[in-house]
Amino acid sequence: MLKKNLLLILLVSLNLINAQDKPNDYSKNFNIELKVWKNTFTNFKLTEFKEEEKTNFKDLYSENVSFKELNEEYKIIGTYSPNKTKFVDIYSYLNLEKSGNTYEAIIDVDQNIDLYRISENKRIRLVSCGSSKGIDEVLWVTEKKLLLVGTQYSEIQKPIIIIVDFENLTVTEFSNTNNNCKQKTKYKSPKINKLKIKGI
């Protein structure tokens, strides 16, 4: 009996460790920090997202790059983790060129989402968007949980949610299943307003 109970506890513990987070687990964040982004879509429900793709960290492209090599303007509009050991850059694709007190954006069609592990001098490519989708906003829920939210570009522009899990070392993309959930207004992150940028 004792062995059975111990085995049951072990199985439950393993299931908890390997449990897959879903967008609905972050409803509080979507009603507070991500509320403005969420409201750019009609008929938005977190229960209507399905897992589209999951990638393990070991399969992500990474390289030894010092955080110091990233231009200062991207550090201003990018997003640090709570303890400042990690940083997410979603804006390098804007190719900002300074002109006086303003910046000119020469936008690249390919948006790459890069994670910097600052003390390790490591850059990891979390997502490559191409022309089919774009990431609009970044939210560190905790040091070990990161949300990337964006738009899928097709006949109907629909929301996408990506959960980056630093405990299970996975990047999981979720797509929306409701054809009536579509973008009604374009989202612009307030982080962009920290710089004067022309061309966006």
Give a quick summary of the entry:
The protein has 4 helices and 13 strands. It has helices at residues 2-17, 27-31, 35-38, 72-77; strands spanning 49-56, 62-64, 79-80, 86-89, 96-99, 102-105, 112-117, 122-128, 133-142, 145-152, 158-165, 170-176, 197-198.
Topology:
Blueprint: H1 2-17, H2 27-31, H3 35-38, E1 49-56, E2 62-64, H4 72-77, E3 79-80, E4 86-89, E5 96-99, E6 102-105, E7 112-117, E8 122-128, E9 133-142, E10 145-152, E11 158-165, E12 170-176, E13 197-198
Parallel strand pairs: 6-13
Antiparallel strand pairs: 1-12, 2-8, 3-4, 4-7, 5-6, 7-8, 9-10, 10-11, 11-12
Walk me through what this model shows:
With 200 residues, the protein is α+β, with helices and mostly antiparallel strands. The protein has one domain (22-193). It contains four helices and 13 strands. It has a five-stranded antiparallel beta sheet, with no helix packed on it. Mean pLDDT is 90; it is low at 6-17. It comes from Flavobacterium chungnamense. This is GLPGLI family protein. Residues 1-19 form the signal peptide.
Across the major sheet, the strand order is 1-12-11-10-9
Q: How many individual helices? A: 4
* Separation of the first and last Cα atoms: 66 Å
Look at the helices and sheets and give the structural class: alpha+beta
What characterizes the major β-sheet? 5 strands, antiparallel
- Compute the number of structural domains: 1
Radius of gyration: 19 Å
Instruction: Please trace the helix and strand order, writing H or E for each element.
Output: HHHEEHEEEEEEEEEEE
Organism: Flavobacterium chungnamense
Keywords: Signal
Protein name: GLPGLI family protein
Signal peptide: 1-19
